């Protein structure tokens, strides 16, 4: 009986101590690892080609350093876009170790893509609108970049 009481006095504080351990804050959702959206997309048309360029971000929307960058979808429409729909192309993901090393040195990395315009004739008043969408490893993005327009007229 004495042994049981002694065990009770020894084990009870240990159980109370262990029960009180934990995080006092509410749980946080997992990071989605979504790369920041591109905000500086530029487009130049030369003949039947449109040359796109943008700065590659090394941060996620949660302001963390990216751990994975997927490809970048190239989106084109004859009007403004709410979503990419069917991309006209894909730029491969940059080499992440090289990108992060350049970022630590203060160097900004750019990505480029060349799009060939369709042969169909468009009116001089129409424009092609371009946007890009950077994907993560789950093929998800934080959304479309800024949209830029080029004339559809030859």
Essential attributes:
3-stranded antiparallel β-sheet, alpha+beta, 18% helix, 2 helices, 7 strands, 4-stranded antiparallel β-sheet, 154 residues
Describe the 3D structure.
With 154 residues, the protein is an alpha+beta fold. The chain has helices at 2-19, 96-104, and strands at residues 42-46, 49-55, 72-77, 89-91, 110-116, 127-134, 148-151. It contains two helices and seven strands, in the order H-E-E-E-E-H-E-E-E. The chain is elongated and about 100 Å long.
Brief description of this entry?
The protein has 154 residues and is of the alpha+beta class. It is built from 2 helices and 7 strands, in the order αββββαβββ.
Beta percentage is 25-35%
Strand order of the largest sheet: 4-3-6-7
* Number of helical segments with 4 or more residues: 2
Percent helix? 10-25%
**Are there runs of 5+ residues with pLDDT below 50, and where?**
none
Order of helices and strands: HEEEEHEEE
Main beta sheet strand tally, sense and closure? 4 strands, antiparallel
Structural class: alpha+beta
Annotation, overall tally of beta strands: 7
| Average pLDDT figure | 86
Distance between the termini: 98 Å
Overall outline: elongated
Radius of gyration computed on alpha carbons: 26 Å
């Amino acid at each position: 009986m004495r042994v049981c009481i002694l065990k009770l006095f020894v084990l009870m504080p240990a159980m109370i101590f262990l029960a009180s351990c934990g995080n006092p804050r509410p749980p946080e959702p997992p990071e989605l690892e979504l790369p920041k959206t591109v905000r500086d997309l530029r487009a130049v048309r030369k003949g039947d080609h449109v040359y796109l360029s943008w700065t590659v971000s090394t941060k996620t929307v949660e302001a963390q350093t990216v751990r994975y960058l997927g490809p970048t979808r190239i989106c084109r429409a004859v009007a403004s876009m709410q979503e990419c729909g069917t991309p006209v192309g894909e730029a491969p993901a940059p080499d992440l170790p090289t990108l992060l090393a350049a970022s630590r040195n203060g160097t900004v990395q750019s990505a480029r893509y060349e799009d060939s315009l369709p042969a169909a004739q468009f009116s001089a008043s129409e424009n092609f609108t371009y946007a890009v969408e950077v994907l993560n490893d789950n093929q998800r993005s934080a959304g479309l970049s800024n949209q830029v327009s080029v004339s559809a007229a030859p």
